[in-house]
């Protein structure tokens, strides 16, 4: 996996991934940024959310569950002093589907958290990770 980061101006940077996708990042105005794009640490949080959501949908589909939606809301706390690492991250999953089995959703979240989601497992080295979920029945 590769990624190239290029400074644009001010505190705006473009990240080009090895697959050819481009993502902008920017700093806060007090740090010289213009608030045009997410901060790098927000990107890390979003990456962990995307990684685990991908796992949940894939695991539930493979388990023949009728999953129709998956949202993950992440909230985090960071250390007050540099390096301001994440110290606690709460993942709140809202999984939508028809006849979803609670134990299947719980198992998918557990497998993602403990085995498959590289991003959250890596962040778990410095942060306490909390996983909560709701299941919403769909027609």
TrEMBL record:
<dbReference type="Pfam" id="PF02566">
    <property type="entry name" value="OsmC"/>
</dbReference>
<dbReference type="InterPro" id="IPR015946">
    <property type="entry name" value="KH_dom-like_a/b"/>
</dbReference>
<dbReference type="InterPro" id="IPR003718">
    <property type="entry name" value="OsmC/Ohr_fam"/>
</dbReference>
<protein>
    <recommendedName>
        <fullName>OsmC-like protein</fullName>
    </recommendedName>
</protein>
<dbReference type="InterPro" id="IPR036102">
    <property type="entry name" value="OsmC/Ohrsf"/>
</dbReference>
